[in-house]
Amino acid sequence: MNLDSIIGTFLAESRELLQQMEDALLQIEQSPDDPELINAIFRAAHTIKGSSGLFGYDAIVAFTHVAESVLDRVRAGEVRFDSELIALMLQVGDHLGGLIDWLADGHDLADVSVETRATDAELITCLKRYLEEAPTAATAPQAAESDHTEARTASGETASHHWHLSLRFGADTLRSGMDPTSFLRYMATFGTVAHVEPVLEHLPALDKLDPEACYIGLELAFVSDADQATIDGTFEFVRDESSIEIIPPHSPLTAFASLLQLRQDEGDEQLQRLLRCGSLTEAEWLQLQTPAVVAESDTTSMSTFGSDDAKSDFPTLAAGNTSPASVATTDNAKAAKAGKEAQRGGGDSNLIRVDAAKLDQLINLVGELIIAGANTRMLAQRSGMLEMNESAETLSRLVEEVRDSALTLRMVQIGATFNRFQRVVRDVSKELGKDIVLQVSGGETELDKTVVEKIGDPLTHLVRNAMDHGIEPAEQRLANGKSAQGVVRLNAYHEAGGIVIEVSDDGGGLNPQKIMAKAVQRGLASEGQPLSDKEIFNLIFEPGFSTADQISNLSGRGVGMDVVKRNITALRGTVELDSKLGQGTCVRIRLPLTLAIIDGFLISVGQASYVVPLDMVEECIELPGKGLENQEFLDLRGDVLPFIRLRQLFADDSTPPRRENVVVVRYAGIRAGLVVDQLLGEFQTVIKPLGKVFAQVPALSGFTILGSGAVALILDIPGLLAQVTHNDNRAGLASSQLNQVNHLRSNAQ
Amino acid sequence: MSDITTQDGHRELTLDSALTIYTAADTKLQLVGALQGALELHLNLSQIEEFDCAGLQLLLAVSQEAQRQNIRFSIEGATAAVTDVVQMLGLNGQLPFGGLH
């Protein structure tokens, strides 16, 4: 693996982590004290810092470190997540995202723009405020708190002028290429190790000794002007598996009490080491042993020690980046962390990161396999050999399964995309000064990854639109008897082989008269044209249409909705709008599940074959022979069913057979019949796009290759159904379009 | 190559170039073998050019084991690579060094 691909992974992972961090930050607004969420945020920052360090992106490390320190204090319960801190952390995430993007574009971190540097500095200043703030009152009140405080005030702080480091390395430290000596060598670059006490108690007898495990521990007296961050940073890569305790100079005695408690298993020897290091004096030890303090260390758990420390007012302590309380990790916390890591590890190990291009290639190959399989099957049928036929059937069944599982590989849940809108809604509602919440449902609905990627922009536009134009100002809402808080909903569900995504709001809704007037003004409709409300609403997807009286910087320039429609059409989807004046608006996007392969229904007219997506086929009936020659409706069990004669539509001159069939198709609630010659049955269809020349043909959405090698045209059912509802197009396609179709059909024959 | 000479339970083991995490597993086997049935073990480290904590732990464990079995144990010809680590970790006096290189 070369460095570029590793960096690529780093960038991708960092983006993912930032996304997780953002998601958690948005959730934490609702439950500010959820430890899971706080941990998730902390972990994201921590991991980004760690891996940036690996690649030597020091600017990111330095920046993230400050954020991490603040988060650490949040984790220790010293600082609480309020909306201000959430906003700050969101900015931190954005800034990091910016740096990551900068790296992804192949730039050097040293060359970042002046603005980026300014943001960096500004954010650090804001973050530092959380670190300097005296950690008071933030923690939950504890019983007997006052007693303890008194006891500790008596115990005071230590006299030592040096840092005390208590290091117990994880067993795998040596194996992972770290060596305690290398830490000492590194520390010598920014300070002096005044005294070293080796800890050998954990060294087993020779026959039990694992020669590659690390048993040696160290107690160090370290004289340095470096800040805690630098010293902390030394142990970045072993911190997780090791027990690293760092006690700044002049720390309260309790810090050492905690340390002794933590190293309880080493007994008196550890105390002697502390004394030999000079980090603790005999007098101080005696003071520590005064009953009050001892009682405290007996009754209070380690974690209480931590928070108690934090509450005591030791200015030197607060000046450090992190208090020893937060450095000292409790056994409990560690166990919990280990559990979580394990969980995470379990989840990760079931996932493989695959280049999307490889998946595309696989899908393409499966497509070719289907075509080749269809050919084999046809030849087998033609040969009349029973066994051959059977084998071909088995083969095609397997190919079908392979197709399905290959396609599910590309399926992703839309939830992640939806959740991204929490941020959009949050930001936009701040910007607009409206109180709006986003409600998400149907996030588990799956669809093709390529579709998910491409749906983001249109959705953003629709959501912004709903917030800007849909939701009324609070006063108006209250006047209309609604709650002041507006709601924007995102919903997704499966329907007839496709997915439907709804963006709805409970705002003012659309006024059909107003839209009609505007449409007439813009020349999109003519005065007095009889249009249903639905048709009028959908006029806003026409190019150059905007109803906003006032153009805001979010939307209202009239370039939005038609672009939305174009993007969705490009995905073979459709978009429609529903609105009730005063009650709200709902934009419904229908998308095919996948872009590559579908189950088709093969039909023929004359010599040409056509494919209808099977999901849209409701039933097939025989065309009643008499009395329909010039009619375009038939009676389907009492319902009126409009139909289209494909022969007429494509101007096929061949003689119709004696019996014709009707394929009843349904899409988006509209039902119609297609009159065809023959029904050829189910067919796995690999969709091949038509060339640009044929892009204007409305009735076709692509073509496919049959087993015989012939071409079958895929009918664009939504397009055809739209024609059924617009009577004027009934006569058939325009002559230029027909020429194109004829050209295609002659190829197909 | 490491080299061991034996004479009436009096053994001298010379370790070659490296005593690190990479060689620790093999070296341990050699040392355990050398201790077996020995009355005296002299370890010659004059060839050691690389030395780390894994090596150090091994020496400490051998030293303790020798003490437990009443085997006379000494280390000879320790190179700077070895003594640096020993000094850095404050282990002077913990290992029976003799005849410093």
Automatic annotation (TrEMBL), chain A:
EC number of the protein: 2.7.13.3
Function: Involved in the transmission of sensory signals from the chemoreceptors to the flagellar motors. CheA is autophosphorylated; it can transfer its phosphate group to either CheB or CheY.
Record has Phosphoprotein as a keyword: yes
The keyword ATP-binding appears for this protein: yes
In-chain residues carrying the UniProt-annotated modification Phosphohistidine: 46
Name of the featured protein: Chemotaxis protein CheA
Region (Disordered): 137-159, 315-347
Recorded catalytic activity of this chain's protein: ATP + protein L-histidine = ADP + protein N-phospho-L-histidine
Organism: Pokkaliibacter plantistimulans
Keywords: ATP-binding, Chemotaxis, Kinase, Nucleotide-binding, Phosphoprotein, Transferase, Two-component regulatory system
Compositionally biased residues, Polar residues: 319-332
Positions of the HPt domain: 1-103
Record-annotated CheW-like domain positions: 597-726
InterPro entries: Bact_Chemotaxis_CheA, CheA-like_dim, CheA-like_homodim_sf, CheW-like_dom_sf, CheW-lke_dom, HATPase_C_sf, HATPase_dom, His_kinase_dom
Domain Histidine kinase: 388-595
Automatic annotation (TrEMBL), chain B:
Coiled-coil segments: none
UniProt cross-references to PROSITE patterns, sorted A to Z: STAS
Alphabetized CDD domains for the sequence: STAS_anti-anti-sigma_factors (cd07043)
Superkingdom per UniProt: Bacteria
Gene3D superfamilies membership: STAS domain
Domain STAS stretches: 1-101
Protein name: STAS domain-containing protein
Organism: Pokkaliibacter plantistimulans
